[in-house]
Amino acid sequence: MMKNYIYILFLFFGLGMGMTTGYAQMNSSTTTVPASDGIVDLSIFPNPVSTGKIYITTKENLTKNIEIYDVLGKKILATSLFGKELNISKLTAGIYILKIKEGNNSATRKLVVK
Description:
Number of helices: 1
CATH class of the domain at 41-113: Mainly Beta
Keywords: Signal
Strand order of the largest sheet: 1-2-3-6
InterPro entries: Secre_tail (IPR026444)
Protein name: T9SS type A sorting domain-containing protein
Domain Secretion system C-terminal sorting: 44-113
Helix content: 10-25%
Low-confidence stretches: 19-28
Pfam family, one: Por_Secre_tail
């Protein structure tokens, strides 16, 4: 069991180290990712979310495969997104990992649900 907690800590520290303050500011409600990070102009908003819906946009605007994991690594949601709006109203308040795949590119972000 302790081994799982260590993996989770590495996951959060790895995600935290991958974000730079120039692109993800603490008080910003929109996260924009640079082109070198995989998905060009990835924007996820609002984050933190309290409305039950998030909007995911990219430059290419292709179909996106979305997976949401809880902090223990359990897959909570897996879906394909054809537009911009993703309904997450069934998620309880907490911190989640959002994995997005668009074409051959992928990105992982933290999602906070209030």
